[in-house]
Design goal:
Blueprint: H1 2-27, H2 38-68, H3 73-82, H4 84-103, H5 110-129, H6 137-167, H7 182-211, H8 216-220, H9 222-252, H10 261-294, E1 308-314, E2 317-325, E3 331-338, E4 350-355, E5 364-372, E6 375-380, E7 386-392, E8 404-410, E9 420-423, H11 426-429, H12 432-455, H13 462-482, E10 484-487, H14 501-514, H15 516-519, H16 540-543, H17 549-558, H18 574-586, H19 594-599
Helix pairs in contact: 1-2, 1-6, 1-10, 2-3, 2-4, 2-6, 3-4, 4-5, 5-6, 6-7, 6-10, 7-9, 9-10, 12-13, 14-18, 17-18
Length: 602
């Protein structure tokens, strides 16, 4: 937890350092001359500089201790001089000092301001050079630079703005200071905030798409959890900012119209409290940013929420167990065994049994097979997400032991991420419900166009025109959605196995061997194990005709997420899987929709 706190302090220091000059030059400036920071503002700004430099040096100490297992002065100096990470730390701290020396006299000339801007940009680029985005190409690096600059400039200016409002309170300043209009400063800050929020939203979305593989990563990984927390706090911050912009700032403008002093001071006081709350939320956002920059983005599907690492003893045998996610979508289990003398323990394959507490389904059985001296491995693709209980039978290598038992939590199956969007027409034109909705959405779009033309440019019809435009957007969106489906990479692949009687007979034999225990010999979903499963196995005489050959092949190969249907790609050859599909195609459809299903085969 020390590293995230360190990085959070680093970002807070950066915001205070860059936000001070941004506030003086953009918010409180008058006639081209920067405003005065005051003693309190100057103290906060210098505190930001000290915090940024101190946390940067502590980061170098942390990196040296991790690389060299010590943090002596010599090790830290060696890191700062020879390692790329260390040289970037030296560069950003040096640029921060140069930036402070340029900003302290509050330059007025154009060239002085340009040098100040370049020094600040250099600090931001150096900060981004040590982040995750720097490893994802120039586009990711540029997006991160804009993201950090927008957050530091707007966030730092917000902190200084909150301090300025406190200094402008009636009980803290003299009569000559009360004439400074808070509404003017608030309007300027609103323009800065609007530009910064737009940049943050655009670059944040871009970086999230590059660094996070999909929606399951947001709930199944620590990085995704930290990002959700950051987004939640940021949303609250925007809500407070919106209240300030649409309510308090217009209210503050009444002071220019000669509003009574008591009412003006009351509105200013509430505005001051709202900005202080906004600044507090910003500090929480910067804290979450510190956690994100120290975590590992889930660029590949992460089946496990957290990697597993356990050690222990099995009588006289010591073991070390690891379980980690693989890019293939599976979980790699690695078990290492040594005797009391440290020698590898060899033996046969060790059976594994995986069960899901609270689920009525048969155990998922596998085996850890020898892969080296004293090492056993197994790579599995779990059929369902959730909590799994794993039991390893070690009696073959440690007869007196009770085995190894542990639990893991699997996230959403990466197989779901292999589904792709594609354009199709059968959903809208061949399914009865699709045809019905197609007619409804076309009618809605026509009604919306008619309403827009009727409203025209008449001021009295503005609400009607706005509502009709929303209705038109919604109906067009739904029309397009009717012709777009989410399928699988093999969905449109034709079946390469011929539809002969011998092929169907072979597919039936394979089905009865590997599938009938769950789906039943007639594929009606009434196999011997069907009563132990939830959800129950599908009646393939009804559901198979609803899918293409390529989709059925994908289900057999990869399994079905959210069910007990396992993957058979390691058990059946590609030709055997296509052969099973041929057998499923030979089954007569049953049930109330049999006639319709027999008519529309695809």
């Amino acid at each position: 937890m020390t590293f995230p706190v360190l990085k959070a302090g680093h970002y807070i220091g950066l915001a205070l350092l860059l936000g001070g000059p941004a506030f003086w030059h953009w918010i409180t400036a008058e006639r081209g001359r920067p405003g005065s920071p005051g003693r309190a503002g100057l103290a906060v700004w210098l505190t930001g500089l000290a915090l940024f430099v101190t946390t940067g040096l502590l980061d170098a100490v942390r990196a040296a201790s991790e690389l060299y297992a010590s943090a002596s002065v010599g090790d830290v100096l060696f890191l700062l001089v020879n390692a790329r990470y260390g040289r970037i730390i030296v560069l950003k701290l040096a640029l921060a000092v140069v930036f402070s020396l340029l900003a302290l006299p509050r330059p007025v000339s154009l060239w002085s301001k340009l040098l100040l801007l370049l020094a600040g940009a250099g600090v931001v680029c150096a900060v981004s050079a040590t982040g995750h985005a720097s490893a994802s190409g120039w586009a990711g690096f540029l997006a991160d630079v804009i993201h950090v600059a927008a957050m530091a400039t707007w966030g730092g200016a917000l902190l200084h703005f909150a301090l300025w409002l406190w200094r402008m309170a009636p009980w803290t300043q003299g009569p000559e200071q009360r004439s400074l209009p808070a509404s003017a400063q608030a309007e300027r800050f609103a323009r800065l905030g609007t530009a910064a929020v737009a940049a943050l939203a655009a670059t944040g979305a871009l970086m999230a798409m590059r660094l996070i593989y999909g929606w399951p990563a947001l709930t199944a990984t620590p990085y995704g959890t930290a990002l959700l927390i950051k987004l939640g706090v940021f949303a609250a911050l925007l809500a407070v900012a919106a209240a300030n912009h649409f309510f308090f700032v217009p209210a503050l403008g009444r002071e220019r119209a000669g509003q009574p002093g008591a009412a003006r001071h009351a509105e200013t006081r509430w505005f001051r409290y709202a900005v202080a709350g906004e600044a507090l939320l910003l500090l929480l956002v910067l804290g979450a940013t510190g956690v994100l920059t120290t975590g590992t983005p889930p660029r590949e599907p992460q089946v496990l929420a957290y990697p597993i690492h356990e050690t222990g003893r099995l009588g006289t045998v010591t073991y070390e167990l690891d379980a980690s996610s693989q890019a293939t979508g599976g979980i790699l289990f690695t078990l290492r065994l040594h005797d009391a003398g440290g020698r590898p323990v060899q033996g046969p394959a060790l059976p594994m049994e995986l069960t899901m507490p609270g689920h009525v389904m048969p155990p998922y059985r596998a085996a850890l097979r020898p892969s080296g001296p004293g090492e056993y491995r197994a790579e599995l693709i779990l059929p369902m997400s959730g909590r799994w209980r794993v039991a390893i039978d070690t009696s073959a290598v440690a007869p007196d032991s009770a085995g190894i038992a542990f639990e893991l939590r699997a996230g959403s199956s990466p197989r779901e991420l292999q589904r792709v969007w594609y354009f199709t027409w059968y959903r809208a034109l061949r399914w009865p419900a699709g045809v019905l909705w197609l007619i409804v959405y076309i009618a809605m779009a026509g009604f919306a166009v008619h309403s827009i033309r009727t409203a025209g440019a008449k001021p009295a019809f503005r609400p009607l025109r706005g509502s009709a435009q929303l209705l038109l957007f919604f109906s067009l969106w739904q029309l397009v959605s009717l012709f777009v489906a989410k399928g699988y990479p093999t969905a449109d692949n034709p079946n390469p196995v011929p539809a002969t009687a011998d092929v169907v007979a072979t597919g039936q034999a394979l089905f009865e061997t590997y599938c009938a225990q769950c789906h039943g010999t007639g594929a009606r979903g009434d196999g011997p194990l069907a009563g132990e499963m939830w959800p129950p196995p599908s009646d393939l005489t009804i559901f198979a005709p609803m899918h293409t050959d390529g989709e059925l092949y994908w289900f057999i190969s990869k399994g079905v997420p959210g069910t007990a249907m396992p993957a058979f790609e390691a058990v059946l050859s590609e030709e055997e899987r296509w052969t099973v599909v041929r057998y499923l195609r030979s089954l007569p459809a049953t049930g109330p929709g049999a006639a319709w299903l027999n008519r529309y085969q695809y």
